[in-house]
Amino acid sequence: MKILVFGHGAVGSVLVKLLEKEHAVTSIVSADLRLDEKKSGKIHFVRINLKKKLRVLKLLEAHKPDVVINAASPMFNADILEACAVTGSNYMDLAACWEPDADKNSVSPYKIEQFDFDKQFRWKNIVGLIEAGVSPGMTNLFVRTCADEFDVLEDVNIRLVDYSGSDDLHFAWSKEALLDEINSKPLVYRNGAFKIMEPFSGVEEYEFPKPYGKQKVNLICQDEIGTIPFFVKLKNIDIKDYDNQVEMHKFLYKLGILSRKKMKFGDVEISPFDFANKVLPDIQFDGEDKKFESAQFAFAVEATGKIKRKKKTLRYYVSFPKQKNINKLCLNANFISYPTALSAKMFVMALSHVKTKGIIPPEALDKYVRAFVLAQLKKAKGVVIKKEWF
Known about the structure:
Blueprint: E1 2-6, H1 12-20, E2 27-32, E3 38-40, E4 43-47, H2 53-63, E5 67-70, H3 77-87, E6 90-93, E7 99-100, E8 110-111, H4 118-124, E9 127-129, H5 138-147, E10 152-163, H6 175-183, E11 187-190, E12 193-196, E13 204-207, E14 214-219, H7 224-231, E15 236-243, H8 246-255, E16 263-265, E17 268-270, H9 272-279, E18 296-307, E19 310-319, H10 323-326, H11 337-350, E20 358-360, H12 367-379, E21 384-389
Parallel strand pairs: 1-2, 1-5, 2-4, 5-6, 6-9, 9-20, 10-15
Antiparallel strand pairs: 3-4, 7-8, 10-18, 11-12, 13-14, 14-15, 16-17, 18-19, 19-21
Helix pairs in contact: 1-11, 2-3, 11-12
């Protein structure tokens, strides 16, 4: 399998290292604006400016990859999808742009831009697996896994653990993506309809397994809610997060630091968001710092429905290694980038088994493909999966 990865940042760099270890992967092109041209083992590093669409197309034509992965900003999804449609390359990404849909007749108020390429991909007989990281990605897969257990699925709650081990402001992944997420209004699905909520609303206490126990969680804007209701029949779904830095995020939001409304400073117009994104460093997370050694990502997918007319609740709880154990893998990864890259690697390795063509999210994968991914996750060192019925 020949793979081209766009983006060599916190996630992309780890993904490339994980893919290099796979025997089925014969070559990898890692392309990023910050890279110099060189080769190392299976990996060919290439410098590229993703804003130059023609350069992207030529790179695909030159290397003829079996799979192209966008591990850079989702703002480049459309351009890369277009290039894949031209060259006939399979595609995968980790997130959507998640912009408001200009179509007033749209069912969802947010637009998943990747679906615009569904017809082209079907015609080319190629697959575009979208939002295939950990969240979104693995969370979607577990929602579908739960759904398969019920005769009637009613409610699904996705609950995340983003525990950094320190209250110091940090960026374990793209600061632009994180700041944008904090500033975006969450989407929920209530009684069969989408609804936009306010940031940090829907506060509740959720009982996580040990060591976290009962923690306050609030609504966040995540891609899962934009696709799952179209592929899994249910009444309600939302996603909430326990983040030990939430008070700092609230402060930034309420202060207006994340506003995209442009303001005039002398002769220059700039938005507070652009200013914050410019002055804050890309990554403020030192995995070797002992204060972060307990940092961990985990998620719970809790589904309620009916089996033979009896109401049941099923919960999967998936926890990934703590930072101190991730450090032992020598991947230069953190508690967010590692689960994301690990999950992405498993989805990549499953692509050769996918028969469905067109643009699909993880919950739309065929059952045997989903089973393949889950089997790989269960084998992953340090990943713990708990299944409970209530």
